[in-house]
């Protein structure tokens, strides 16, 4: 129980959520229910799907939830690109977020591969 908290990818995704909320807090008020809300929800979706998948009954289910987390991470990154083009975040902030997301995506992909190998064996 609560083994997901030991996963490095979950820990990094939690850090990403905190960084995201700090960045989106600076967005214009008019974006509160638009891009700000969507980006924050995406960040939470990444970490939540990792946790939910880890708590499921099978490796196959965990693998599926990791796929959802990976999809959310791509959506998340896209929304930050939009925020950058709208000048809500700087190029350096985008670069920093993109590096964090890429690291998390690699970790999720590695975990998915590991789980897939166990399912097949």
Structural overview:
By secondary structure, this protein is mainly α. It has a single domain, classed as de novo design (two linked rop proteins) (Up-down Bundle). It is 78% helix and 0% strand. The protein contains four helices and no strands. The protein has helices at residues 8-24, 35-54, 59-85, 91-120. Helix 1 packs antiparallel against helix 2 (35-54) and helix 3 runs antiparallel to helix 4. The mean pLDDT is 95.
Rg over CA atoms: 15 Å
Number of domains: 1
- Distance separating the two termini: 25 Å
Instruction: Note poorly predicted spans.
Output: none
The percent range for strand residues is under 5%
**Largest sheet geometry:** none
List its traits.
121 residues; mainly alpha; de novo design (two linked rop proteins); 4 helices
Could you outline the blueprint of secondary structure elements for this entry?
Layout: H1 8-24, H2 35-54, H3 59-85, H4 91-120
Provide a quick synopsis of the model.
This protein has helices spanning 8-24, 35-54, 59-85, 91-120. It is mainly α and 121 residues long.
């Amino acid at each position: 129980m609560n083994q997901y908290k030991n996963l490095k990818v979950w820990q990094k995704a939690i850090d990403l959520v905190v960084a995201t909320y700090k960045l989106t807090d600076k967005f214009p008020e008019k974006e509160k229910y638009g891009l700000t809300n969507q980006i924050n929800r995406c960040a939470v979706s990444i970490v939540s799907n990792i946790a939910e998948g880890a708590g499921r009954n099978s490796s196959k289910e965990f693998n599926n939830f990791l796929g959802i987390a990976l999809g959310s991470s791509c959506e998340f990154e896209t929304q930050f690109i939009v925020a950058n083009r709208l000048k809500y975040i700087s190029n350096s902030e985008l670069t920093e977020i993109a590096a964090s997301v890429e690291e998390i995506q690699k970790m999720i992909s590695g975990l998915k591969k590991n789980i897939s190998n166990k399912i097949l064996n």
